Every structure is written in C-alpha cells, then in structure tokens.
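Protocol step 6 of 9: fold each sequence in the batch and record its structure tokens directly after the sequence line. For illustration, a two-sequence batch is reproduced in full.

Sequence one:
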Amino acid sequence: MKTRLKILLGIGGSLILIGLVTILILRYLVTKSFPTVDGELRVPGLLKPVIVERDEYGVPHLFAQNEHDLFFAQGYVHAQDRLWQMDVSRRAGEGRLSEVFGPSTLKFDRLFRTVGMLRIAERIAENLHPESRELLQSYSDGVNAFIASHKGKYPIEFDMLNYEPEPWTPVHSILVARLMAWELNISWYVDLVLGELYKDLGEEKAKEIFPTYPENAPVIVPKELKGSMLSDNLLGLIDVDREFRAFDGISGTHIGSNAWAVSPEKSLSGMAMLANDPHLGFSAPSKWYEIHLAGGRFNVEGVSIPGTPLVVIGRNTHVAWGLTNVMADDADFYLEMTNSAGEYLFKDTWHPMTTELDTIVVKDSASVILTLKSTHHGPIINDVNPVGSITSQVLVSMRWTGQELSDEIYALSQIDRAGNWDEFRSGVKEFTVPGQNFVYADDAGNIGYTAGVRLPIRSAQNPTLPMPGWTGEYEWNGFVPYEKLPYLYNPPQHFIATANNKLTNGAFPYHISNLWEPPSRIQRLEELLSTKQKLSAEDFQSIQLDYFSYFAKEMTPYILHAYDSVAVKSADVQTALNYFGNWHYQLSRDDVPTTLFHVYFTHLLRNIFQNKMGEGLFEKYIFIANIPYRTVPALFRNPDSPWFDDPATPRVERRDDVIRKSLDEAISELKVTLGGEMKTWRWGLLHTLTFRHPFGSQPPLGSVFNIGPFPVGGSGTTLNNGEYYLAEPYQVTLGPSMREIVDFAHPEASRYVIPTGESGQPLNDHYSDQTELWLNGEYDVIPIDSAFAVSTARHTLILSPAP
C-alpha cells in the first residue's frame, strides 16, 4: 500500500511539476516580447537621443531633437507594443493572410487582391509629397530597427503561427491607412442590397423600406449659413466583407461617432472646448494607440493608428480636432456588358479589359491562381466569393474613391502642426478617404467644422442601385472642389455638433449620401449642448456617457397605443406596458424596459421584413443597423402599410397586430433566457461586450486573448453607442473606440481613454488596464505641456544612436 501511495504521489508530483514548467514556458513565450521601458537602448538609425517618458498607463511621450528621430521613435514604440497587430493589418491589405493562417483566410485575400489594395498603395507611394515620403521612411526605419534587434523575442502570435515579421516599408503604412478607409466604406452595402430588393420585391415595395433622412432633423451646416441583371452571387461581396470584419474584430457597421466644440461663450473655463468619441468596431487590442510627439515643428498628442505615423485625432499647442464619418457615398457599381473576346462595351465601342494573373500562397495547401480583371470603372468583383457565374455577358465593376491617388500622411502632417483655422483647413484639404467631418477648436477661442472628403460629381445625383456601365450616363465627372464642401466657423449658437447626421440641406448641389445616421443621437447632443448656458469638461464627460434614446421615446407610444382598443388578458403584457408607461428612455445596463424594448424590436423586424425577404436577404438588409432604425418609424406612420401583413396567414395584419405579436414573442423569449421574474430582466444580462482578439474564437485561447465579457448599456441610438448586430442580438459590436476631451484652459489636463490598453500583448500590464476606466467613464490625463508630462512619468527610456 505504501509503495502504491509513493507511486501515486510521485506521479502527482511529476504532473504538478510538468504543469508548472509548462506554465513557466508559456509565460516566458508571452512575456519575452514585453518592451523595455526604462534605461537606455542603442538603436542604429537614430541621429540624436530620443527620450520616451511613459505614464502609468504606458502612454509614451516622445521627445526628439529632430523630426527624423521623432517619427523613427514612433515607429519603434508602435512596434514595441503592437507589432503583431501591425503585421496582420499589412498582410490583410496585401492579400497575404493565407500565407500564415492557411485556407481559412483565403476569401479575405481574394477580396483585397480583387479590390487591388496593394496596387493602390504602391501607386500612392510613387506619388507622395516629398515630406510624406521622408516621414514614412523615418517611421519604417524605426519599425525595422525594432524588428532587427528583437529576433527571437517577437509577440507570441508569431510563434503560434510559426513565422517572423518581414521588414516594414512606407507601402505598408499606406496599406494600413487604406484598410481603415475600407472599414468606413459601407455605402456600397446599400447599393447591392437595394438592388436585390428591387429585383425580388419590385420598385414600390423596395422604395418604401429604403429610408430617406427626416427633413426636419438637424444638419451640421444650417440653411441660413450656407436590376434585373443582378444575381445572388453579387451579395457574396457582402458576405466576405462581413466575415473579414468579424476576423479583424470590426463587426459593427453603424459606424456612428460624436464630435462637438463650444466657443468661450458657452465654456465654463472661458476657453474653447472640444470632445470626440469615434464609434468603431471593438477588438483586442484597440484600434487606437495614444501618443505624444514632441520634436522639430511638432508638439502634438492624441491617438494614432499602429502601422502609420503622426496623430490622427488629438491636439497640439494651439488647435484640437475630432472626427466623425461623413457617411459619404464613395463607391458605385457598374454592370459591364462583355463579349467572348474579353472586351467590355462603353458608348457603343468595345474596349479590352485589363487582365492580370496573381498567385495567393496558402499555408498547408496549394497556391491559388487569380485572374484579376478591370475596366476603366474599376476591378471586376464577381469572383470575390463565386457561387456560379452571373451571366456569360454581364460582369460587375466597382469604383471607389479609395482607389484614387491621395496623400493623407501629408494632410495629417499639416493638421498635426497647424496653428490656426487657415492652416488647419489647408491640411484637411488634402484629406480624402475615409471621408471625415473635422470638428475644430483653438486656443484663440475659435471653433469650426469642415468636411475632408472626396465626393464624386455624378451625372445621376442619387446613384444607389448598380448602374449600366456601357451607356456613359453614370460616369464620375471629377470631384467636388474642397472649397465647395460644407464648412462652418464660429456660428452664432456658439457650438458645433456632428453625429453622422445629414451635412447640409437639400440646396447642396451634389449627392453626398443616402446613409445618414438616424437623428436620435444628434437630437440628444444638440439638446444637451443647448440646455446649459455654460459647459464644463465634466459636462462633456456626462454627454459622452449619455444613454438617452430619442428613438425609444419615439417608438414606445406606438406600443402603448396598440393596446388601447383591446383587452389585455396577460399579466406579463400588462406589467410590460406599465414599465413602458413609466420609462424615461435611459438605456442603462440595469434597466428592465430597455431589455423589453430591444427584444421586442428584434422580433418586430423579423415580423415585418423576414417573411417577405427570406432569411438571407433579411440579414443583409438589417446588417447596416441605421437602415431599419430609420425605416421602421416611417412605416409606423402608415398603420395600413402592406409590409405589416404576413403573407402566410389568411387575415390582413396591420401595424398594431404586428406590435402585439412582437411583444408577446419578446416576453416568451425572455422568460426562457432570463427567467420568470420580469423585474430581473436587466439589459446588461443580454447586452454584453467582449473585446475579441483574432485568436479569441478558439476556446482555450479566448480566456487569455479576449477581454470581457462586461455588461453594458446603450444601443445604436444612444450617444454612448452600444450597437449590436440586429440579426444576432445582443452582443455589442461597436461603440466609442476612444474618448477625447480638450479644454484649452488646461493644457496639462487633456483627457483621453481607449477601451483596452496600449499594449497588444496578453499578460502585459497595459493590455487591458484602461478597460475599467473606459467602462466607468473615466480618462487618462495626457498633458501637452512637456514639463507636466515629465513630472507625471512612471518610466523613462532613452533611445540613443548606436556607436
């Protein structure tokens, strides 16, 4: 017995020892790539020493003696913290994910090679402004200095996929920026889905559920201041893009954002103030990287994109700015008539298509040969996700403003060092994709708004459907000059606000978009900015955290009205109606009527649309959340709309019938998912947020790489955005990707926060240390003043030139 016990103890001890050794090895593999943040490093390529001061959240302040070293150091610290994120982004743009991930990412490589992302970046690199070229090269040299000096100590993702990073080039930075533009390029979803609706349902029914912006909703610039040839496989482009967004952690498509500025007349501090919280898909690590750059002509802080130099959103000594998406219609689809000779028809003449062979190398599988074709409109996109041929004669091409030459690096370099409104506008003039609303404030008390976007001038001003390309009728006739784009400067109401709402009134002569956000957020934002005579930074903080929904306020009376003329026999329904009758439309995570409303709305959408569209088209229709958010209120104003009728029943249903059915279904669902006590149905039990890493979908790795889940409030209609995909409720996919508050009265106390942390490496102290701040509505204070930055630093690293 003793011998047996000894054997068991020995085996147990060995297993424990093996387990401990395994844990230590795994910990070493994860932590070996953690950055050096104190002391001195000799780095080849530097001209002079650069001081890197990091605060308690790992945010680096870079102090350089010249601009080459400044951007060299930015590349170096980006690589220290986010090298694998940078590498995956450039591989995605190049169409080379399958080299390391294998066949699972082949469709993504096919997508971006078809769109021609690498070809675009290479053309841009050949036509850069000399300043941009120099700046990008300095940044690339810094990334490469890190890569060269850390062989064998790369982030664990490289080990898990068994590859090493290649040298960085300026083309890669351009690719990362263009990939961001692609993320915000969602207007083409509407073109394809509406085309399918027209084909399946006919023009009248399709038009009824394609929203037009409410004419009485606020605009940024007030008036007084200013087919049948389609096939199912076209929608495959949407399917592939949706899958890529999920892979890259950018599942949301609402793409809502808030930005506003107030002049000294409305500021409690007596100086101009600005706030911004761009809403993007959530991921781990975060989209943004906080940084302060000081050297040469630059003293700028804010958020940057790992893989690209400069600051995208932030402030310098004199000006501050924030961004929201213009929602521009920046892409069109053309039906191309072709013949057996590989030619396409344009204005009664046959032209040769451009054809190119390309090869995708696939890990653990055979390489894939692509035949890439294009017309003068752009690439042929039929084979992105092929499910058969469209016809033997009709192909579809895509034209996107992101395929045009531009130089956003030069734009940002001017914006980052602008000293006044005119210099700022000169920089924004060079910014074209993704189209952005720039909100501005400065230390002289001025506030402003200007659009930075490339708007096509079209013959047809509302080109929503895919169009015949052979007629020449729907060509782009250049782009709207920057001087004619909307702008605003020091308006009499002393504030400027944008929440992806309509830019101008109908008098603007050019088509901008059909994709404006529903007015719920801009109505609330303007209300909060107008209510108080003077606003503080704390007021701005409250606005960024606001959960009030004008959409819920508009839609709830219809629920109550639906029961006016019927006897309510269900105690559960009566309790739900009592909740709705006393609701204040604050969509907090602990709120019960918020839960009832959103589960009801999910069933409502299915009961209105799915039985007429079918499952596949229905999911594509509601994928861009702002479409149903805008369509349903319009339908509700016509209680006899045929959209309320269920074709599967003998009776004719009206609006109130569908409302009652949807509420019954919602209560039944919630009893199953959350139990029988309605008072316990808190919104945060369903509405949770997890910041997902690309490896996080694999169960053993999710607990290491993912951050969350967390119960959160809000929806796609609240200022504090908590969008979820309406077909797969209720996990949050999109929201504030950073928050910024700048008060020019306090240069030592600009407020920023990102949802996770500066590091992209699990187990690092800064992988998720800002998550609690972000969830609680708190901020990291990042001073623009160098003395304050040094006095609050926790770590000091000197990057010195190698001897």
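Sequence two, same batch, same settings:
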Amino acid sequence: MKRTLALGNLLPRIRTLYAAEEIDPGTVRTLTLATKRQQADWLKLFDDPNAYAPRNANLKAWLLGGQTIKAEHALFDVAASGLATLTDLFGDAPCFADASAFWAAQNAAIEARREAYEAQGWSGVVILPPSDHFASWEYEKCPKRKGGRVYIDVRGSGEVVIHEGYLSRAHAKRAERAAQPVADKPKRPEVTSAQQTYIDLHRRAAVAATLTEHPGVALRLMLAFTMAGSPLWNVQPERAVARDEATRESVETCRAETAFDVRRRAVLALLGFPPDKPTVMRSYGSDDRLLVSIFLRLLDLPDAAVLDVVAVVMGETLGVGHVAIEAVGVTLGVDMAEWWQADPAFFDLLRDKEVLGAMVAEVAGQTVADANAKEKGATLKKIVSDHLAGTDGRQQVTGWMPRWMRFPAVAYTERGGVGSVRANALVATAKAEAMQPEPDTGLGPNPEVPDSGGSLPLAA
C-alpha cells in the first residue's frame, strides 16, 4: 500500500514514462522523494536533448541539494530540530532535505560533545574534519590518566565516530621520552680507544704465545669456539636435509644416525645442556657468555671426555657430500654393511638400467643378469631385493653394498657423475702426492724450525 501511495504521488507523465520502461525502477523510486515542482523540473531536463536528467544515486543527490545525509547520523534530536526529512517510502532510512541546515545543527552538536569531554578531564579533544581520516594504525591506545585524547572523526556522509583514549604515535613517543628520567652525563672512560687497542693487542700476543705451551687448554678453547661461535669462526652444524620424505625418513631411522644420536645425547648431558637440544653446536651467530661457560666446563673434564665431545662436534659439522667423508671413511676402513642395508627409499631412487643390470650380476650372477637384460627396471629391482631378503625362492645374499656406498667408492660405468667416486679420486691423488719423497735441497734441516722432540701432550 505504501508503494502504491508513493507511486500515486508522482506526476502522470512520470508514471507514463515508467510504464513505457523509459524510466528505470531505481529512478522512479528516487522520484518519490521529490515535490511536484522538483518532478516538473526533472521532466524539463528529461525532455531537453541538450540537458542531463540525473538518474538513481545522482538523482537523489540532485533532489537533496548535492548531498545525501541519513537522519540516523544526526547527533541531535531530529524531531526537535524541525529539519525536514524525506523518504521514498521504499526504504527505511529517511534523509535530510537540506544538507546545509543539517551541518549547522550537526556542528553545534559536535561542539557540545567536545566541551563535555574537556569537562571530563581529557587532555585534548581533536575534531577531524571530513577531509581527514582517523587511521587507527597511526595511533596508540592511551588512557585518560596518562594523557589520552578523544578524536571526533567527522565523515562526509554526516556520520560521526568518536575514538576515546588515543594518542598519535608522535605524541606517544614525546610522552614516553618525557616520562623517562634524565640520564646522567656519560663519564669519560679511563682509557682512550687507541690505548685500549694497544692493551688488547699485547694481551692477545701474550696469551697466544702461552697457549703454544698448553695444547690441552688450546684444544678446549678451540672446541668452545667451534660450539659457541665467534666473529672469526664460521662453523655450522650440517642440517642434512633431503627434498623427499622417503629419504628423510630413511636417514633419520637408520642405525648410524641412531648410534650417533646416542653419543650426542651423552655429550649434551656431559656439558649440562638440555637433553632435547637438537645439536651440540650452536646453529648460528656467536654467544660470548656461552663460549666462556663451555670453555670452563671443558677445563674440568678429562682428556678422554673432551675427545668424546670433539668427535660429536666433528660429526655434526661434517658436510654432506664433502671430500672429508671419503677421506675419513677410507682412513678408518668404514664398513658400510655394518651401518646400512637397502631399503624401499633406495630402490625408488634407482633409474639407470645399466646400473641395475650390474647390481643383478653382483647378487644373482652374470647368467641371471644376462637372462633378464631386457626386462623392465621394476623387474630388475625385484630380483635384487629378493636376493637381499632371501624371498621368492632366491638365495639370500648378505653384506651386499652398492659400489657408490663403499669406502673407497667405485663407479658402475665410465659415464661419471657420482660424487663419492669423484671424492675418492681426490683422496687417492692426495695420498699419492703425500707418499712422494721431498726433494733433497742439500741444506739439511731448517734451522728456523725448532725440534719439538716428539708430539705435544694433549693436556699441559
């Protein structure tokens, strides 16, 4: 019924244009706000080919003097103000007919709010005009007792948002500085920076010379530097990260990693570190306090215990794929069969059929390898795995090790591309060079190098 009354208030010409679909529903709905005179003026614009008849939201602004302000935004009593409001009977929110009259009443109400807040004891009440905006990230919460302010944010739509207890970041910093006690004037140091450099250089030279007579102390200090870090040291624990989950799980659960973790936990307990610490080594940076703490603790330990710590720290800092792995493995005669056996992750990564054929020959014999030379890689993998497990009627083979995993590492083909084999070549070359006799210069022993008389003791 309300809609019918609203449409009935329109001039007949407007209703005719709407029925002929020359005026859209949104424009007709807005025209119900207009007086008869405004409707007639709008029809003149509509009929004038050189003029523009506003539609929809533009029409509403045209009817209301250029600005649409909802009555709900008023801080004053709308009914008592006597200001005219309009509604199109299609919506629930009436609007002020005269925007300038609204702002006169609204500004008076805002000023009254400001005076009320000042009377309550706020340190300041700031009115932000429609051209400004209260950006919350530029302010900090601050209670009234600490100098907080009230910000009255006036919007162009007529809405007013009040923010109590805030300070701009600039004001907050000034207040923080003002609250801080005045620092005493810095005292002049006892020595100049140049004098300190002189002192430090001579003290370092004396300690370095004395350390040469106490190799046990030097070893403990070196170990402390390795574990705690130093600006002159760059040693980090190997993270041993693999890209695929299967490889990570294979390494984390293998016998060698488990055995090493047992020794690591023993060293953590020896040094008084938490048992759940992932590494004995510090992962990054340096910590002077930790350095001194570790050094003093190591001084209290016997040589055997210190060497246990050395072994774990060295193990944590062995780089994956580094040539040192091959050098140590060959030197100590590491038997990989004691630490590793083929698992699904290993077989999943095998792709080369020539290599698979050679592996079949190692575990099943050349006759079987030749008979299955044209089989798929999956079949060759199964032959190898069945022989290693002794399943599916295959004779079990124990202690088998891929050539790449052995110490020394050997390749299956001449194609290269195996990191452990390259490392073994470097180790072999270094060994050959070390075994060559030094050229006789005819000068005898170097008089500048004193005879140590044998190896130095570990602890002085």
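Proceed to step 7 once all outputs are recorded. Observation for sequence two: The beta strands are 85-86, 95-96, 125-128, 139-141, 149-154, 160-168.
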